[in-house]
């Protein structure tokens, strides 16, 4: 049974039905994001940035290292004083990932002339709020 009330679009109160809705949302958005972010218009971001992967250690919800992708415009590689931008991917805290938004955010780094930190925080409902928000906060403090 679906977690969505067909007449009102509301979620049912049981967790199993809501998980069905979450999985439906994740599945429905994945092709759109992949198509949008794979557009050739975003190639310049991939070509003009370097990527560094870091792990931010956390312990607020068990031991977990939050993956963060760092995009540095190649023309800023030798600069020691660089502005930074922390990015939280969309998806309503239940879908998407840093990888889904990579090419778009690389363009942001190039267009803004900043180093971008793309935080791959854990998703709900597997990770209970506020722990996913704390993942992002730990990345800010790192």
Question: Can you describe this structure?
Answer:
This protein has 142 residues and is an alpha+beta fold. The chain has helices at 15-37, 43-47, 98-112, 131-141, and strands spanning 49-58, 64-73, 84-88, 115-119. It has four helices and four strands. It has a four-stranded mixed beta sheet. Helix 1 packs across helix 3 (98-112). The longest helix has 23 residues, at 15-37. The radius of gyration is 17 Å and the shape is flat. The protein starts with 14 loop residues before the first helix and ends with a helix.
Largest beta sheet: what is the strand line-up? Answer: 1-2-4-3
The biggest beta sheet reads: 4 strands, mixed
Proportion of beta-strand residues: 15-25%
Mean residue pLDDT: 82
Radius of gyration of CA atoms, rounded to a whole number: 17 Å
Proportion of helical residues: 25-40%
Task: Count up the helices.
Answer: 4
User: End-to-end span in angstroms?
Assistant: 43 Å
Secondary-structure-based class equals alpha+beta
Low-confidence stretches: 1-8
User: What does the overall shape look like?
Assistant: flat
Secondary structure: elements and pairs:
Blueprint: H1 15-37, H2 43-47, E1 49-58, E2 64-73, E3 84-88, H3 98-112, E4 115-119, H4 131-141
Parallel strand pairs: 3-4
Antiparallel strand pairs: 1-2, 2-4
Helix pairs in contact: 1-3
Give a summary of the structure in a few sentences.
With 142 residues, the protein is an alpha+beta fold. The protein has helices at residues 15-37, 43-47, 98-112, 131-141; strands at 49-58, 64-73, 84-88, 115-119.
């Amino acid at each position: 049974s679906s977690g969505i009330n067909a007449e009102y679009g509301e979620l049912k109160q049981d967790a199993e039905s809501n998980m069905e809705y979450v999985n439906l949302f994740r599945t429905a958005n994945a092709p759109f994001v992949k198509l949008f972010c794979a557009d050739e218009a975003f190639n310049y971001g991939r070509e003009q940035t370097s990527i560094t992967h870091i792990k931010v250690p956390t312990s607020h919800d068990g031991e977990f290292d939050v993956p963060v992708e760092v995009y540095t415009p190649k023309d800023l590689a030798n600069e020691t004083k660089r502005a930074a931008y922390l990015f939280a991917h969309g998806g309503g805290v239940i879908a998407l990932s840093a990888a889904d938004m990579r090419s778009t955010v690389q363009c942001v780094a190039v267009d803004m002339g900043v180093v971008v930190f793309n935080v791959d925080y854990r998703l709900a409902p597997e990770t209970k709020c506020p722990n996913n928000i704390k993942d992002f906060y730990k990345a800010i403090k790192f």
